[in-house]
Write a structure and sequence with these properties.
Keywords: Carboxypeptidase, Cell cycle, Cell division, Hydrolase, Membrane, Protease. The chain has 673 residues and is of the alpha+beta class. The protein has 23 helices and 20 strands. Strands 2, 3, 4, 5 and 8 form a five-stranded mixed sheet that branches. A five-stranded antiparallel sheet has the order 10-9-17-16-15, with helices on both faces. A hairpin with a 5-residue loop joins strand 9 and strand 10. The N and C termini lie far apart (137 Å).
Length: 673
């Protein structure tokens, strides 16, 4: 029995061992399966990774590299600073300053409402306007261009996310209204829109440079790629022939004439005969190009270059020169002036006085329309028109200005005898003031054409120089005409332009303006042209006043303005007789008739008031004002430095005048008041 029991136990043991061996065998089999599965999975993963890596680094490398660069690198186009505009003595007429502008990246803005309200409070605009811009969904939107430094500092202090300040360039005209109509103005993108700014926009505009900028994930700039960076170049400067001092008192004189006679506008040019340089290009009313948007297009208009006017009797010297050159007349040739009324083909020609027999010289001196018309008829339309063309009428003046007019000079086939008679005394054809200046420069230059010059550092083209160097009249003819013009000032219609001790030749002009309905209306253009000295001119001054209301004769309206400009110009050059200097100071143009510039620097039109025996405080005043203060005491101070305004004075304000002693008077100048 015991044996049987052992046999059973042994049998169970064998079955248990067999079962354990089977179980162990099964476990080993699953491990292998798991291993194989993991190995296969790893193989698939690695193959996928290697495949993806191959795709990224080999197949799509160019596309992905470009996308990465676009995300982290961006190019910025930067334009160099716009060049300056300078006068003949390198005084700054137009310059460029760095100015801040504010923009927003809408996708970075967390709270459009908060940002719009805070910006609106600083910029003084409607918050809805800013919120509307921010919600447009673009990556970049301008909020306001060219803000002042205080506003920029206030925005920066807010630290608004998504709001940025960008440095741009802004044009500034430090003399404000001075030469405004000639200089023109630039738009918000620094592009010239009128005047010199427009005509020389390509020259003044700085060259563009490309910057590649690297940014982090937040869009902040990290550095500039030096390999792709080029240095921005500043635009070239333009140097004009304009003399700021001459320009200033020419503008004063013209403004006075316009205000005194309620005229539409007035203009004046001062031309140096030896060089043809235009020293002044003055207009009134004036405008401030710093705030050009506040003025109408008529106020911004360059009337001198663009307005075409019948110049009236200022044309008569050219008819005389042509008739003398063609041997049609002599200075003493007699003409009957019909007692002031003459009928030609049912058209009545009148003089202001009942004149009878006059020599050709007196015809010009008394400005007889009838006598001039008879000389024109003897000369003939063909020859007279040919001389007008050779003088430059009927084509634009050789000046680098856009928008110039060619004037009006009809074809010869359209001229009748009446047209010829009218053209003889300056009606029936029209010109701009620069065209008239070119013609008078021929007389002043001995009968040879000479081009006007407005820009110093840009030479005239070869064909322009060739065309403007031809002889029109002989020296003998021009000398005779200049002598006749001297008589105009000494004993004729130009007596109001006379300056004691100065030889002046000139011609008045009073032209009736054409009416829109046809014929001539009730409006006039008054003008005067003067040459100093009379027989060997060194400079020419032309003045025109359009549509004066209270009086329209050139001798009353334009000639006094010429005289004021001439006296101040001669005083500036030290050629004005001493007894006229004191009269000039005593009869300065009343400042109440000159528009306010808004700064102390422009107060030189009035008489400097000197109280007692003490030196006034001249700091911040214009140099011209200060010089007049000293001149009233018979003192010529020393001037140190450069600029237009007094920075420091010695002796100081409050010290006693001592003109008779050896006291040294010195003024230090600055560009800023």
């Amino acid at each position: 029995m015991a044996r049987a029991t052992r046999t059973k136990s042994l049998s169970r043991s064998k079955r248990t061992a067999s079962a354990n061996r089977a179980s162990a065998s099964q476990k080993r089999d699953w491990s292998r399966v798991r291993f194989l599965c993991v190995a296969a999975l790893m193989a698939v993963v690695w193959c996928s990774l290697w495949g993806r890596a191959y795709s990224l680094q080999v197949v799509d490398t160019q596309n992905l590299s470009g996308r990465a660069l676009r995300q982290h690198l961006t190019s910025e186009l930067v334009t160099g600073r716009r060049g300056k505009i300078l006068d003949r003595d390198n005084r700054v007429l137009a310059s460029t300053l760095a100015i801040k502008s504010v923009f927003v990246r809408p996708y970075e803005v967390e709270s459009p409402y908060t940002v719009s309200v805070r910006l609106a409070n600083i910029l003084k605009v409607d918050p809805k306007f800013i919120r509307k811009k921010i919600k447009k969904g673009r990556n970049f939107v301008w909020i306001k261009r060219k803000i002042d430094d205080r506003t920029a500092a206030a925005i920066k202090k807010q630290g608004l996310k998504g709001v940025y300040l960008q440095t741009e360039f802004g044009r500034i005209y430090p003399n404000k209204m001075l030469t405004g109509n000639l200089l023109g103005y630039v738009g918000v993108d620094e592009k010239g829109l009128a005047g010199i700014e427009y005509a020389f926009n390509k020259t003044l505009t700085g060259s563009s440079s490309k910057f590649v900028v690297q940014r982090d994930a937040a869009g902040r700039r990290l550095f500039l790629q030096g390999a792709e960076e080029t240095t921005p170049l500043q635009g070239d400067d333009i140097s004009l022939t304009i003399d700021s001092e001459v320009q200033f008192f020419a503008e004063q004189a013209v403004q006075y004439a316009v205000n005194a006679y309620d005229a539409k506008w007035g203009g004046a040019m001062v031309v140096d005969v030896a060089s043809g340089d235009i020293l002044a290009w003055a207009q009134a009313p004036m405008f401030n190009p710093n705030v050009f948007g506040q003025y109408s297009s008529s106020q911004r208009r360059d009337h001198i270059a663009q307005d075409v006017l019948e110049m009236g009797s200022t044309i008569k010297p050219f008819l005389m020169a042509a008739a003398l050159e063609e041997k049609i007349i002599e200075p003493d040739s007699l003409f009957f002036c019909e007692n002031g009324k003459w009928k030609l083909h049912n058209v009545r020609i009148r003089d202001t006085k009942k004149l009878q027999w006059l020599t050709a010289k007196k015809v010009l001196s008394y400005s007889s329309n009838i006598g001039t018309a008879k000389i024109g008829l003897e000369l003939g339309a063909t020859k007279y028109r040919d001389y007008l063309v050779r003088l430059g009428f009927g084509k634009k003046a050789a000046l680098p200005l856009a928008g110039q007019s060619s004037g009006i000079l009809r074809p010869l086939k359209n001229w009748t005898q009446v047209d010829l008679a009218n053209a003889a005394f300056g009606q029936g054809f029209a010109s701009t003031l620069p065209q008239l200046a070119e013609a008078y420069l021929v007389l002043a230059n001995g009968g040879v054409r000479k081009p006007l010059r407005l820009v110093k550092n840009f030479p005239l083209r070869e064909e322009v120089l060739k065309e403007n160097s031809q002889r029109v009249f002989s020296e003998e003819t021009t000398h005779t005409v200049l002598k006749m013009m001297q008589d105009v000032v000494e004993s004729g219609t130009g007596k109001s332009a006379a300056i004691s001790g100065v030889s002046i030749g000139g011609k008045t002009g009073t032209a009736q303006k054409a009416a829109r309905s046809g014929g001539y209306g009730s409006k006039y253009t008054s003008s005067f042209v003067g040459l100093i000295p009379a027989l060997n001119p060194e400079f020419i001054i032309l003045v025109v006043v359009d549509e004066p209301a209270k009086n329209y004769y050139g001798s009353k309206v334009a000639a006094p303005a010429f005289k004021e400009i001439a006296m101040r110009y001669m005083a500036l050059n030290g050629t004005l007789p001493d007894f006229e200097k004191s009269r000039l100071l005593a009869s300065a143009i009343p400042s109440t008739l000159i528009p306010k510039y808004g700064e102390r620097r422009f107060d030189v039109g009035g008489k400097p008031q000197v109280s007692g025996n003490s030196i006034p405080d001249l700091r911040g005043r214009s140099i011209r004002f200060a010089m007049e203060v000293y001149a009233r005491q018979g003192i010529i101070p020393s001037v140190m430095g450069s600029g237009a305004f007094v920075k420091k004075q010695k002796p100081a304000a409050g010290a006693k005048w001592s003109a008779g002693s050896k006291q040294q008077y010195t003024l230090w100048l600055s560009e800023q008041s």
